[in-house]
């Protein structure tokens, strides 16, 4: 170091410059680190959002039995995560055809559901082989993948919203085959297609990265698994329903069989003593003088024996095997004879018949249908106030099935009893056996038809028998 201190000054300046440069380096390094940190934080945020969405998707679709609903949720979720503005989801139907199931477009634009269905209704007989997610321009994917027919129908579906054919060709497109295994040719539950509407993509400033595509592949597997479970769930539900139906039918059949057996035994045991009583009463009637109380008593015994006999007849009818022997018969004529038979018992009743349509020749067991109609008309007469009209309507319904209605002006059937009135032995009448309507129901069902109860506009009851036009399969 010399006396004027120049060297000292120079070296201090140099030292300062060196320190300054080092500081500069440090600052640059710090900025770079912070930038990296920011980027990885953003990436982390994105990954968390996706995991969160995946998780939410799994929760949302658990227990859904409809593949369409699952694809709706999947399309909505991917729409929220990626900047596409059109989506079409296809589902594989039984028989292996891909059919459009869900259409989505940016909010504010009505999803062109109808158009998509029309455009894609017939194109997709054969399933594509690929199972990996594919991303590129529509043109590129059409040339390099087996999704070409699918992409064409997507173009057609969205054609009205697309700016120009050139823009459409450049539209960024993501095809997501929904497969649990993801290997070429393996199981396929459906395909999701996402697009931008024409112009270039603003994919958060960048195109989907390898990570994005990997995530989409993972998600596609999860959607496929959910769709598979939903199909299994639906099958299971259907099986349960069928099982419950079969069980209900079996219980009903067994109950009726047991009732039938009991009825047959009772009827047989009652009919013989009843015959003896009737004979004895006839003899008594001849023996006692025409005047006096005894005659009145005998009349009561005779009437009550007649009623018992009617009950026994009902029971025997109920116990009879119910296999119809159908012939081509005119239901209108059957109804006429039923009305005649009721008039013999109730000469005061106002029963009229209207016929409409071609019900003249149906395949029916005339005896069974006549008995059923008699039961309905007698019920109507007993429920109606004196002189109130009862209408029997016979019509050839849709598909030439036969419809018979019996309408009265009585009080109707309370809603709480609407199902019970068809049960055997259910009655609200002191002198009823409660078999009338169960015989009606059995006759209708033996023909493959049904009987139902409705409210008449007047407040009375309308019983409707519907019979198919074809003979019922023999059980
Ligand atoms: N047209 C009707 N209006 C109001 N209630 C009715 C009518 N038809 C049937 N019901 C109700 O349904 C019940 C059951 O009818 P169902 O014909 O099976 O037996 P029932 O008439 O009581 O006896 P039966 O065996 O002698 O016919 C009746 O007791 C009555 O309460
Ligand atoms: Mg009755």
UniProtKB/TrEMBL annotation:
Key words, A-Z: ATP-binding, Cell projection, Cilium, Flagellum, Kinase, Nucleotide-binding, Phosphoprotein, Transferase, Two-component regulatory system
MF (Gene Ontology): ATP binding; phosphorelay sensor kinase activity
EC numbers on record: 2.7.13.3
Gene3D superfamilies per UniProt: 1.10.287.130, 3.30.450.40, Histidine kinase-like ATPase, C-terminal domain
Signal peptide range in chain numbering: none
Domain Histidine kinase: 265-471
Keyword Nucleus assigned: no
Keyword ATP-binding among UniProt keywords: yes
Catalytic activity: ATP + protein L-histidine = ADP + protein N-phospho-L-histidine
PANTHER family per record: PEROXIDE STRESS-ACTIVATED HISTIDINE KINASE MAK3, SENSOR HISTIDINE KINASE
Protein name stated in the entry: histidine kinase
């Amino acid at each position: 170091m010399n006396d004027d201190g120049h060297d000292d000054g120079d070296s201090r300046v140099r030292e300062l410059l060196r320190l300054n440069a080092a500081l500069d380096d440090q600052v640059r390094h710090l900025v770079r680190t912070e930038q990296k940190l920011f980027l990885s934080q953003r990436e982390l945020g994105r990954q968390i959002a996706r995991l969160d969405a995946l998780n939410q998707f799994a929760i949302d679709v658990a227990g859904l039995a409809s593949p369409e609903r699952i694809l709706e949720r999947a399309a909505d979720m991917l729409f929220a995560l990626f900047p596409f503005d059109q989506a079409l989801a296809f589902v594989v139907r039984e028989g292996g055809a891909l059919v459009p199931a869900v259409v989505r477009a940016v909010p504010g634009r009505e999803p062109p559901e109808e158009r998509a269905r029309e455009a894609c209704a017939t194109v997709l007989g054969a399933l594509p082989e690929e199972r990996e997610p594919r991303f590129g321009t529509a043109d590129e994917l059409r040339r390099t993948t087996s999704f070409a027919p699918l992409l064409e129908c997507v173009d057609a579906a969205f054609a009205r919203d697309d700016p120009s054919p050139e823009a459409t060709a450049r539209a960024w497109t993501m095809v997501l085959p929904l497969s649990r295994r993801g290997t070429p040719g393996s199981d396929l539950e459906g395909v999701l297609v996402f697009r931008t509407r024409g112009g270039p993509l603003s994919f958060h400033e960048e195109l989907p990265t390898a990570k994005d595509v990997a995530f989409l592949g993972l998600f596609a597997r999860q959607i496929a698994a959910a769709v598979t479970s939903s199909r299994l769930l639906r099958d299971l539900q259907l099986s349960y329903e069928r099982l419950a139906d079969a069980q209900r039918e079996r219980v009903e059949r067994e109950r009726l069989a047991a009732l039938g057996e009991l009825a047959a035994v009772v009827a047989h045991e009652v009919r013989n003593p009843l015959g003896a009583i009737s004979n004895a009463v006839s003899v008594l009637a001849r023996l006692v003088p025409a005047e006096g109380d005894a005659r009145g008593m005998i009349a009561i015994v005779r009437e009550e024996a007649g009623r018992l006999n009617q009950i026994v007849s009902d029971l025997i009818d109920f116990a009879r095997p119910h296999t119809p022997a159908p012939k081509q018969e005119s239901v209108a004529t059957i109804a006429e004879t039923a009305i005649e038979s009721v008039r013999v018992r109730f000469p005061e009743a106002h029963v009229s018949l209207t016929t409409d349509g071609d019900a003249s020749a149906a395949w029916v067991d005339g005896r069974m249908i006549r008995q059923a109609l008699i039961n309905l008309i007698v019920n109507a007469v007993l429920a109606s106030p004196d002189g109130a009209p009862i209408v029997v309507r016979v019509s050839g319904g849709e598909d030439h099935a036969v419809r018979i209605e019996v309408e009265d002006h009585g009080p109707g059937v309370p809603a709480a009893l609407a199902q019970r009135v068809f049960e055997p032995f259910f009655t609200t009448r002191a002198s009823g056996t409660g078999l009338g309507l169960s015989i009606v129901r059995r006759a209708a069902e033996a023909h493959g038809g049904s009987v139902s109860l409705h409210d008449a506009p007047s407040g009375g009851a309308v019983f409707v028998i519907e019979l198919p036009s074809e003979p019922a399969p023999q059980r």
